[in-house]
Amino acid sequence: MLPKKGTAVSAELYRELAWLPKPPSDFSIRCKELANGSGGAVGKKIRALATHALDEQQLSRLGRTIRSLQLGGVSLAPLAPFRLGLIGNGTLDLIVPVLVGTAARHGIALECITGAYDQFLQDALQPDSLLNKARPDAVLLALDHRGLSLQICPGNEQLATEAVDAAIGLLDSIRASISRNSGALCILQTLAAPPEALFGSFDRALAGTSRNLVDRVNQKISQAVLQSTDMLLDVAGIAETVGLADWHSPAQWNLAKLPFADALVPLYAEHVARIIGAMRGKSRRVLVLDLDNTVWGGVIGDDGMEGIQIAQGDATGEAHLAVQQLALTLRARGIVLAVSSKNTDSIARRPFKEHPDMLLKEEHVAVFQANWNDKATNIRAIAKELALGLDSFVFLDDNPVERGLIRQEIPEVAVPELETDPASYARTLAAAGYFEAINFSEEDRARAEMYQANARRLSLQGQATDLKSYLRSLEMRIVFGPFDRTTRARVTQLINKSNQFNLTTRRYTESQVEQLEADDSVMTLHARLIDKFGDNGIICVIICSATRNDTWTIDSWLMSCRVLGRCVEQAVLAEIVLRARAAGITTLEGIYLPTDRNEMVREHYGKLGFTRLDDGTDGSSRWQLRTDVELEDLPMTVQREEKQFEPA
Amino acid sequence: MEKAEVYSKLTAVFQDVFDEDDLTLTPHTTADDVDGWDSLSHIRLVLAVSKAFGVKFSASEIGGLKNVGEFADLIEKKA
């Protein structure tokens, strides 16, 4: 198998902020519109624009736009104002607009106060320095190994100890001065070790090498943070994640004294903004999980308990287990878990109750919403039940259509982009850093319990989300055609696999399907759905047989649940009606035969405007529709494979 | 890369860095001719050009440039 294009689970996931959606193509136009301040709701628009995978130039541009709006006195509400002092060594001015642009992503209207180039001591120590007079909310000490003047002294333990103590002493005096002179908290950075080794691997062990000094300073900085109210920015961790060789750019240091490579400024700024966001209570608190192909591999309603992939030893199963494991560890540190799945409630709960490989159990889930309503309505209901703002929610779903819906309908909810390979899900969710915290307490640990995780099921009240405009934005195209040689295998597979959206659950072998193709009294139809995210393949199978001169009985109607809620049912009905009319058929007859899986389509024909003829004692029902009905306007274009059938 | 292509791409980078849609370049354009071309935006410019053309510049190459014409020559040689 060829590697998939754009699989970003390595360094580029972090460097390119790949959990965010790609920037809009009209990014610079949108920046200009913001600069003109036209149309109001500027703060919301800025945040929406910032919530893309912008590169350093785009973030810089956005940051400069925000700055000019701030100087012009434009209100950026609901963004919360924050003043950040920035002192350190090297050229920090380039970082400032990127920080401002990135902070907007985290709901912050940032203002940065920088000192003079390499004057950080004076900035901190003088009570009337620009920095201290500005009364910042926090000061970021952006000092690296150069700024702390770590002199290497290979093999000399005494000098090494002195060098480390001197560096920590310098940091301590800066922190004390800032606290005294401005009252601000400090954000301390760990140091990214330069990759150049002196001896080689031995550098790590030998006192006084660059690596050894950096390790020891970082250890002490971490301790200092735990013993104070100051905060930690783990630059060492960030740099190691993307690679020290990329972090340190000798060319850019020589050229412009950039303390680290400019391509990594967006990632650095993202981490700074997470900490500021956490200080202002903007970190997320709830993780809403989709189930099918997110928490487990496969579709529980169709594949059943034996068919879903969740076992150890299975590559796909382990990828989904990693998602469950991450969700559980997040819960253990206080993140509330909820479920939103398009499923029948009892079927969706079964793996939680009975599957031996499931790590997640019902008791871990505060609210469990498995139904056939749109997910925006469900997430709003969960937020109301938990009494938490929608801006504290994260929504994890493998389906780009569901992600797009939530981004459009509830932009406050964070929705990570996911690659198609489930192996990337857990890592991407973690990389997005939605749950950044600056400390950890016993109360945090107990918080998830406080939300009485008992898998409550909420009844949905009020209007469902208006989906028509979103559906139109999907650029859907439905392509109809009869069964034939090329589609036969997939059609047969669907006929034998579909359980939930299946009106009669009649199974046919491939040779029976072939006979149906040749039968003049039978109308076969398959539908393929294509949208802007790609081709969903064949998602619907219809078999109609002429049971009277003027009547078609719908022998089989089945669909993939993946395309539910997208008006595909209406489009398919319209197509059946058009084909019926062309064949001189005046009446359609629908049958519902109940199984333990297809409860969701009990009222299928009723919803489509059929009249109920009668009910059987076994729960079955028969329905009728005249083909002279008026057909609905559809949010998609319709195409047909065969040229000869073009209804008027 | 053709000189004309270099200039067209370079103009777009300049326009973006200096937030100036009407900015035009000639070989004789210098920092004095462009509003806001200070030492900081000069760094931003070099980084943006480097990214746009996928080339790297050494400090000495950049330090020796007198005008846009020399910059374009340098890019043409590398790209």
TrEMBL record, chain B:
Gene3D superfamilies: ACP-like (1.10.1200.10)
SUPFAM superfamilies: ACP-like
Domain of life: Bacteria
Residue ranges of domain Carrier in the record: 1-79
Pfam families, A to Z: PP-binding
Xref: InterPro entries: ACP-like_sf, PP-bd_ACP
Protein name (database record): Acyl carrier protein
Species, as recorded: Bradyrhizobium centrolobii
